[in-house]
Specification:
Spore Coat Polysaccharide Biosynthesis Protein SpsA, Chain A, about 260 residues, alpha/beta, 8 strands
Length: about 260
């Protein structure tokens, strides 16, 4: 049984959800050290982090400029525990996340992933949430994900992630673990709610992110395989677009609500 683990959280201007994210981490994970890798935030991100350090006294902040690949690698270099977690700063973990994830640990398991469910503002239709979950699982099987992932340190301690991977660094990590001979488990009983930053709910930003995603995908994988599975990711985007409505997407929501 795992006693406690280090948790790595990447931040950059994450004030819109960071306090709720970190609260869910401390509530559902036995945190030994919280390692915050910050991309020089200019909002209240670091103040929120300091408040948690005052409360728990186990927070370490590292300032890193560059891609997500560089930030993740800098974070995992600080790990001191046999298992650790990557948690994105815009998610809220499900209840008893770690306790449920422990059930999947075995000698041949290198990582356990919790399904990420993108929360569409003002959407409460459970059928849509179920569809979101199914799409997320399919996306993970093709390209990985680090929203809420428990990882065996031994499986990644010698990893070197190409710094230019601002996207697809998660796929690189997952494939590295598999190449080491470990299994990747998708937990049926663990998940996180993914609250994208308000600015992300704009058509312009969505297109911009899609371009970055495409470039990194082509860089990381063979073009023919990327073209094969990229439409699956687009299905998720258009699903969100059709549900939320183009008009609302062009006017970002300031206060996304929990479902």
């Amino acid at each position: 049984m795992v006693q406690s683990i280090d948790v790595v959280v990447l931040t950059k201007n994450s004030e819109h959800l960071l306090d709720r994210c970190l609260a869910s981490v401390y509530r559902n994970v036995p945190v030994k050290n919280l390692i915050v890798v910050d991309g020089f935030s200019t909002d209240r991100t670091l103040k929120i982090v300091e408040e948690f350090n005052k409360k728990y006294g186990n927070v370490k902040v590292i300032a890193v400029e560059g891609s997500r690949a560089r930030a993740r690698e800098k974070g995992l270099r600080q790990i001191t525990t046999d298992w650790f977690m990557f948690v994105d700063s815009d998610v809220i973990l499900s209840r008893s996340w770690f306790r449920n994830a422990e059930r999947h640990l075995a000698a041949d398991v290198g990582a356990v992933w919790g399904v990420n469910i993108d929360v569409i503002p003002n959407m409460k239709d459970k059928r849509i949430l179920k569809l979101q979950s199914l799409v997320a699982r399919q996306c993970f099987s093709l390209r990985g994900g680090m929203h809420d992932t428990l990882i065996r340190r031994e499986a990644v301690e010698d990893i070197h992630i190409p710094e230019q991977l601002h996207a697809y660094e998660d796929a690189y990590i997952i494939n590295w673990i598999k190449a080491k001979g470990y299994k990747i488990v998708v937990g049926d009983d663990i998940f996180c709610l993914h609250f994208k930053p308000p600015a992300n709910w704009s058509l312009q930003n969505g297109v911009s992110q899609a371009i970055v995603d495409f470039r990194c995908g082509v860089l990381y994988s063979h073009l023919y395989s990327y073209i094969f599975y990229y439409p699956i990711f687009m299905i998720q985007w258009f699903l969100q677009l059709s549900i939320h409505g183009a008009r609302n997407l062009l006017t970002p929501q300031r206060n996304p609500k929990m479902i």
